[in-house]
Amino acid sequence: MNPRARLWVVAAALLALAVFVFFQLFEQRRFEFETGFRDEAARNRYLAAQRLLERMGMQVRSLSLGELRGLPPVDGTLVLPTERATLSLDRSRELLDWVRAGGHLLVVTWTLWDEEDRREDPLLDPLGFRQFGRPGEAEEIVQDEIARVRVPGRDPPLEVEHDPRFRFVDSEGRATWSVEDANGVHLLQTRLGAGYLTALTDDFFLTNTAIAEHDHAELVYRLAGTGGRAGPVWIVFAEEWPRPWQLLSAGAWVPVLAFAVLVAAWGWMRAARFGPIRPDPPRDRRSLMEHVWASGRFHWQHGDAGMLVECAREALMERVRTRHPGWRELRPAELHARLAELSDVPRERIDRALAHRPEIQPERFSENIATMERITRAI
Fold first, then answer.
1. pLDDT per residue over 190-226, tens digit each?
2. What is the CATH number of the domain that holds 90?
3. Number of domains, the chain
4. Does residue 87 lie within any of the structural domains?
5. Are residues 297 and 355 in the same domain?
6. How many other C-beta atoms can be found within 10 angstroms of the C-beta atom of residue 32?
7. What is the spatial distance between Cα 132 and Cα 110, in angstroms, rounded to a whole number?
8. Count of CB atoms within 10 A of residue 215's CB?
9. Domain that holds residue 54
């Protein structure tokens, strides 16, 4: 076996050994990763509830709290599961008036009654619906406890899962319907005027991830049709965040005021002058002829008149050779005659101008330069 073939055999053996070792040390496995919701479902965590109610023949609209300009008709339902941190007191009163007129308001409370810095809830506090974050001292949290909700016309009861860390207390006994499990009450509903107000400790069963579990979907549908209503359902899926200028005016008005004073002082300082602004003077610029005249005067004063005439003569002869290539072989006398005929300049003046001798006299210098300039224009 020749050396080249032996090398190929060794390389193939090493490759086979590498493949064998790789499959002995590694194995193929498949893993699943949760990518979460995308597009509209990632923005609206109650989109599945909206699609469910739409398939049940209801008119459903999803919007943010900032888009809630008006209110649904009084035979409709408004689902308000956000924190309502930016809901003003006047707007809360409008919602309660709408409920008294016949509307159904479903809200989730995100505040605990026993918190020291608790934010008031103008919708639920007047009703005595108080939420607590832990059971009593003699009770313990029962994880994954299922609430069994009895509803008219259905047997067995609905099974619903709530967050076991929170529970309601109806301090004034105004609830006409409640849902509870071993951890406490999680839903309270009361009549308010001609309408209904439903309070929840959490929105778990409403969300995209949980609506398909247990009987959550049916509970959503039954809540939307509370009191036999068939009006539209509006779902508020996002909070309304204040404008930047509102945040600045509420929490940073001191530095904003200082900045405004500083800008005003700067403007006053820049504006303190008398009369219009004087324009900048134009920069002095010399013309090209001034430079040519100054250069010629410099050479004349330093005895370089002959050099100036010689430069003009060379420029003229270069122009003659360019414009009349056939005159290259002419003798000086014949060339001077042709130039005199072409430019109407006397022959003797052309002879003097093109003679190779230094020119010292100013009159003769000027005459020769003028003669060559006249010939240049003619050709």
1. 999 999 999 999 999 999 999 999 999 999 999 999 9
2. 3.40.50
3. 2
4. yes
5. yes
6. 5
7. 10
8. 20
9. 39-242
Report the amino acid identity of residue 269. M
Strand 167-170 relative to strand 129-132: parallel, antiparallel, unpaired?
antiparallel
Strand partners, 158: 149
Q: Is there a domain that residue 271 lies in?
A: no
- Determine the Cα angle at 312 with ends 311 and 314, to 5°: 65
Element (H, E) at 378: helix 362-378
Of 186, 216, 242, the one marking the end of a domain is 242
Transcribe 62-84 into DSSP letters.
EEEGGG--S---TTSEEEE-S--
Contact present, 327 and 379 (Cβ < 8 Å): no
- Tokens read off for 83: 């924190």
Angle at 270 between CA 284 and CA 283, to 5 degrees: 5
Residues 210 and 133 reside in one and the same domain: yes
Rounded to an integer, what distance in angstroms lies between the CA atom of residue 211 and that of residue 56?
A: 15
Distance CA 217, CA 208 (A): 10
Helix axes 332-343, 362-378, angle to 10 degrees: 70
Residue 3 lies in a domain: no
Burial of 63 (0-12, 13-18, 19+ CB in 10 A): middle
CA-to-CA distance for 320 and 350, rounded, in angstroms? 14
H or E segment at 266?
helix 253-271
Per the domain annotation, does 219 fall within a domain? yes
Please tell me whether residues 121 and 229 are part of one structural domain: yes
The DSSP output letter for 163 is -
CA dihedral (84, 85, 90, 93) positive or negative: positive
Residue at token pair 């509006």 = 234
- Span 223-247, pLDDT tens digits: 999 988 888 999 999 887 656 665 5
pLDDT band at residue 186 using 50, 70 and 90 as cut-offs: very high
Task: Give kind and range of the element (H or E) at residue 95.
Answer: helix 89-100
- Which of left, alpha, beta for 153 (phi over 0: left; psi -120 to 50: alpha)? left
CA-CA distance, 70 to 87, in Å (whole number)?
14
| Reported pTM | 0.58
In a shared domain, residues 228 and 103: yes
Cα–Cα distance list, 197 to 96, 176, 192 (Å): 9, 10, 7
